[in-house]
Amino acid sequence: MHVAPLPPERLRTVCDPSSLGFSSTAEIDDADVGFIHARAIGAIRLGLDIEGPGYNLFVLGDTGSGRHDIVARLQENQRHRGAPPADWCYVWNFAQASQPRLLRLPCGRGAGFRSDMERFVEELMPAIGAVFESDDYRNRIEALQEDAKQREEAALRTLGDEAQKLGIALLRTPHGFAFLPMKDAESTLSQDEFEKLPEARQKELGDNIKLLHERMHRLMGGDFPRWRRELQNRIRDAGRDALGVTVRHMIEELKPAYADLPEVSAHLDAVLQDIIASGESLHAAPHADEDADTVTYSGTITVQRYLVNLLVENPADGTRPVVCEDHPTLQNLVGRIDHLVHMGTLVSNFTLIRAGALHRANGGFLVVDAVKLLSQPFAWEGLKRALKSGRLRIESLSELIGVTGSVQLEPEPLPLDLKVILIGERLIYYLLTQYDPEFAPLFRINADMESEIVRTQENTAAYARLIAGRARHEALPPLSAAAVARLIDDAARQAGDAERLSARTQALDDRLREAARFATAAGSPQIEREHVEAALTAHRQRHERIRLHYQQEIQRGQLLVDTDGEHVGQVNGLAVIPLGEDSFAHPVRITATVRVGEGEVIDIEREAVRSTPRAC
Q1: Distance (Å, rounded) from C-alpha 398 to C-alpha 336?
Q2: pTM of the prediction?
Q3: Can you tell me the distance from the alpha carbon of 395 to that of 333, in angstroms, rounded to the nearest whole number?
Q4: What is the biggest distance separating any 2 CA atoms in the chain, rounded to whole angstroms?
Q5: Cα distance between residue 479 and residue 25, in whole Å
Q6: Burial degree of 27 (CB within 10 A; 0-12, 13-18, 19+)
Q7: CB count, 10 Å around CB of 212?
């Protein structure tokens, strides 16, 4: 059989510049890349519109297909739709200091609440100092102390009068109080004089002294300590009353701005009650302008605990957040709790709680590359836990691996409501679908980007408008029709099919920028075909080292390639090697071996089983 040789012009389909219908891209409108990925864009829009658990997205596609740009554009359209996100704050928990409370505020109001509490704390210490140093407070305390002193002296005086009636004197000594028999109104009996008294009188005086000692013991051991505790309580109540008037006025000034937020109002009431209850301790605590390092949930009481940790702040216009996490470690996703070294010990408090990407994206969208997420220890499992439970709990790596040796803060979990969009290769998606049973219920929508499109006349015209739009987006010079045609031919080459065009817009953008550089160097007002050719040649030259090495080895005879004659069972072929951003082919020898078989049909993988007909 004679096989006609294939002419070189049949090896590829060349785009005719005259068929494009323009001479320069300045004459045509832009085309959106959506015409290439219509199916995937429809899936992304569906996933973004559906509200419900599990309707997160996985965007599949080749690297350089413009996946991130398409997702970002569609998210931008969704940012102004739906419920506005909330601001989230952590505050001190007065009931359980190791479990900071979470407060939810309407978007845009968290910053104001934080500023109000900072100003409140700045004004609180001077106000407390003014209360405890005021003349009214000091006069009241002095009056209470004087009353207590008079009460004790009156009790001692009464006891002394009763002792004097019994012929016994009450004396104050350096070692305390003593009872001695009286000789007359001015003196007491000596030991010798006492022993000269009749035994009955001695016994009577001894019994009376014993009774008086018992009464003195009851005063010193019971009544006086009780009265002093009562005095301390009265002093404390006086301080609370004086402090309550001032602080209550300061709190009441804050409350009207948050009258519509019951949780914030309740927190302000708790702040007021805590300040009143801790008045003396706050007065003796460090000043508010000192570093917050000493503010621990088990340490000294300071006014710093009345501050607000604004964890997440959103704009007041209600725009939903879009967060692209480029380094999705567990801590960067779920947040972390920082620690400080205080007196040789690691300490923490609610002001050291830091937000993660899930916190910042709550109420909106989180975009993560699947490969980066799966390559980080514990990150994938942490993300799944948060999505399944609908609550975001801050987890530390030391806690997960069980090496923590101190009491940890346990912040209140954050209610989670967001869309997670994973972007990755098709292989990753299918591996997760096959081997992770929790993946499919959490990522119900998959958007599969196109790798190439059919090279029809309509698609070619749309591709030309796409090239024009990409050039305008990059602020590049316009392209001539011949330059556009050459880029279309290169897109077909990248697709590896004369009837297809590659959908990898990243490679297209690279060639446009490089061609624009050659056009600028040549002083041309637009990008011509020769500039595109120069860019393609430069790109090929950057990747041709190994290709040239193969050719040199063939020329040196290290690789034998027979091009003349015939040989049974051998033909020459080409092996295509994809290498980075380019590919090349080199000749290889293809051989076939024939041997005597056993009468069975054999394919390249295994021996086929041939069924034997049976007689009916």
Answers
A1: 11
A2: 0.79
A3: 10
A4: 160
A5: 5
A6: exposed
A7: 19
